[in-house]
Write a structure and sequence with these properties.
4-stranded mixed sheet; about 200 residues; 1 helix; 16 strands
């Protein structure tokens, strides 16, 4: 099915919804319906007292999501708060942890300078079912070195978080060497071939 996507300032776009559905909202007021084609034996109904689960993206601990796994209930919100460097919260899949899921959600790159001490940008993901959601950072070499997150992965069997992480680390063993970083711009930052600001 196709779900409408509402955006402030009277803008609109579309995403395709499938097995796992979640609503995303960031600090700029963007919201929409997103999907993950993975299946999970868990099912759920809205929690009587919805929670906001905090996840830190990057920061002093390095290129990781903290915590890297969570088990939210239906109706809970996963809040990804971006710290220093330049990261994303991008949906992927168990089999291809470092590849954006077609039609899936992404926060886009959120550069945060190491001098920033407050008012950090964040990205909210409202959980609408108990199917697993797999997430990675699109920054060069971050996912293949373990920057992944999962919500409601299997607790045992072949699709646990540890095996999802192993899939991501396996990408690093065959990842191509990235192109040289261009010379710094006058403000001291650099731009990659995809024209995104690299604070990595």
């Amino acid at each position: 099915m196709i779900s409408k996507l509402s955006v402030v300032f009277s803008l609109a776009t579309l995403f395709f919804a499938s097995a796992s559905t979640a609503t995303t909202t960031d600090h700029e007021g963007y919201s929409g319906y997103n999907n993950d084609s993975e299946s999970n034996p868990y099912s759920g109904s809205p929690s009587p007292s919805a929670r906001t689960i905090e996840i830190v993206v990057g920061g002093a601990v390095g290129n990781v999501y903290t915590p890297p796994v969570a088990y939210p209930e239906v109706g809970d919100t996963l809040r990804f708060t971006f710290r220093i460097k330049n990261h994303t919260v991008t949906q992927s899949s168990f089999e291809n942890p470092c590849t954006p899921l077609p039609g899936g959600f992404t926060s886009g790159f959120r550069p945060v300078p190491d001098t920033q001490t407050g008012n950090f940008p964040y990205f909210d993901l409202k959980v609408q079912d108990k199917n697993p959601i797999y997430i990675h950072c699109e920054q060069v070499n971050h996912c293949p070195t373990g920057m992944v997150f999962a919500a409601n992965p299997a607790l045992e069997g072949e699709r646990t978080f540890s095996k999802f992480l192993a899939n991501a680390l396996a990408v690093g063993t065959s990842a191509p060497v990235p192109a040289p970083i261009p010379a710094p711009t006058p403000d001291g930052h650099t731009w990659s071939a995809k024209f995104r600001r690299d604070l990595d």
